[in-house]
Amino acid sequence: MHPLAEKFPGVFLHESVSVDLPCEIGAGTRIWHFGHVLANARIGKNCSLGQNVMVASGVAIGDGCKIQNNVSLYTGVTLQDFVFCGPSIVFTNVLHPRAEISRKDEYAATLVKRGATLGANATIVCGRIIGEYAFIGAGAVVNRDVRPYALMVGTPAKRIGWACRCGETLPRGRGDVTCPRCANVYRLLADDLDVVHENQ
């Protein structure tokens, strides 16, 4: 049993996890091997943090998030509810880092909104907002804001389509389209998407 288990009822902490107090960890959350939660971090309920995940001071993670192995969430990062972070995602918090110059007063906030998916090995340049249910492909480099439901790939990341709330790629075209997986309905415009009906 982890020595701090009694301080976090309903939370699973692997015995190798380091937890710096004070911090918040919601019930139902599981933190696996070699994780590190720094003081003043906040983790919501029913999250899963894989092996070697670091949550820095000031980071806020919403409910139901899944963070795969080898992800570091640096100061300035906020994940809203139900964000998925694939393995080895890179977050940054300074735009012009130099080892010999301290730039802690230049941390830029990064906001990942509800339900977004960040694919394995993606890089999220700090100071950006990733919209609700956006889907960032594996290895993409995000260096600008991402619209809700946008499907982004490449270096730098470009929108190549739209993703349903369930994660399925929506059919191309214009007008009303129906998700082939869950039957949610969206209206595709020239460079935008409107939600017509979502079952979830």
Description of the molecule:
With 200 residues, the chain is mostly beta strands. The chain folds into two domains: 5-169, UDP N-Acetylglucosamine Acyltransferase, domain 1 (3 Solenoid); 170-200, no CATH class. It has no helices and 25 strands. The protein has a nine-stranded mixed beta sheet with strand order 1-4-7-10-13-16-19-21-22, with no helix packed on it. The chain has a six-stranded parallel beta sheet with strand order 3-6-9-12-15-18, with no helix packed on it. A four-stranded parallel beta sheet has the order 2-5-8-11, with no helix packed on it. The model has no long low-confidence stretch (mean pLDDT 96).
Number of strands: 25
Percent of residues in helices comes to: under 10%
Spatial strand sequence of the major β-sheet: 1-4-7-10-13-16-19-21-22
What is the mean predicted local confidence, pLDDT?
A: 96
What is the strand and helix layout of this fold?
Layout: E1 12-13, E2 18-19, E3 24-25, E4 30-31, E5 36-37, E6 42-43, E7 48-49, E8 54-55, E9 60-61, E10 66-67, E11 72-73, E12 77-79, E13 84-85, E14 90-91, E15 110-112, E16 117-118, E17 123-124, E18 129-130, E19 135-136, E20 141-142, E21 150-153, E22 158-162, E23 175-178, E24 185-188, E25 193-197
Concise synopsis of the structure shown:
By secondary structure, the chain is mainly β. It folds into two domains: 5-169, Hexapeptide repeat proteins (UDP N-Acetylglucosamine Acyltransferase, domain 1, 3 Solenoid), CATH 2.160.10; 170-200, no CATH class. Helix content is 0%, strand content 32%.
